[in-house]
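Protein in question quoted for reference:
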Amino acid sequence: MTKPVQIIVVGMGERSMIYAREALAHKDWFRIVGVADIVPERVRLARDLFSIPEEHCFSSAEELAEYPRFADAVINGTMDRQHVATSVPLLKRGYDILLEKPFAVNQEEAEELLRCVRETGRRVMVCHVLRYAPFYRTIKEIVSGGEIGRIINIQMSEQVSFFHESVSYVRGKYASPELCGSGMLLSKCSHDLDIMAWLMSGTKPVSVSSIGSLFQFRPEMAPPGSGSHCFLDCAAERECVYSARRLYLEHPQRWVNNIWHECGCDGCSEEEKRRILSGRDNPYSRCVYGCDLQIVDHQSVLIGFEDGATGTFSMTGGAAASGRHIHITGTRGEIDGIFEEQRFTVSRIVPWEAEGKNVRTVDVSAQQKGNAHGGGDQAIVRDFIALLSGGKTSPCCTALEDSMTGHQIVFLAEKSRERNGETQYID
């Protein structure tokens, strides 16, 4: 690079901030030179953090798109249903885009964005950060190297912890398609189905079927004596698994930061946090069983591929702990592992061995370092900067065309679920 890449952030939410903060650590790579957000406090935060001039602070993506181009690219972290509507004008203005997943909420939007990319000649990278995690990246290398032969079946599952489920999906901004534009499978698991499509790269899916429902977060599942608000009228609050007081104040975990960010309370005192949660209208204090949830809390998907291979994926919300499991069966062996454990086994068929197989463990913990996305957030930023600078990108590079298949699987899975599991076919 001869000079740092100039980048504007559109939608300064939690995800965008993770990517943008890399500029503070790598000033020779890129700089944040503009911001657009409908929330004035977030604009001010970005302005002060990245020393953005006032004339490059905007109240919306639309306002930015009307302004003459002054940077190389945009990080688009708007809400799901806004991704295409905000990206198209910016592509036409001449910006390349690093776009948060899911990049579209239906097939029509996906095709619209792809047409715009082709017409403008601009580039869109999708934030499928799990491709970059050492766990999945190493599995991809082994599969591509042929060590386990041709894939027969891929089984994947994601357990969404009770904590994450309540913060982001039941009480949070992804609770309904009306709020975010998509169901839980797309907003939470497009990562996973992208991984499956990536591992099967070169072999297209031809059929998708899916079933799922809202099982747990319904009024009839509420404990006796429960009310509508954890702080104001609930006699069961102290015994409830989903007590907002316990989860967000007394025993906070990773996802609680999303609450304070959404409430404009980054850096607030404990007293102020308690006051905010005690408000009658605060969404994060509502009883989880009375939130009128409009998305499923568990779903399973079956995919058929053109060569006869199959794939299954199951998502369950409200689990004791977060976890992603993968088991790949090939004609010469298997791969089996759990992402959070930062290691997996490779079992090769060896008929002359006593057990008929040879097993080795691949440990990626030294690279993954316990990071939630295995360092993928940082790696995707590096790849995006390389793409913009004319450098060499990694095999994980998530160009828009590469991400289409995983999204298409999700769109058809949702259609199948809505039709009671009716198989959907891909032309």
In short: The longest strand covers residues 151-161. The domain at 130-217+294-372+398-425 is CATH 3.30.360.10 (Dihydrodipicolinate Reductase; domain 2).
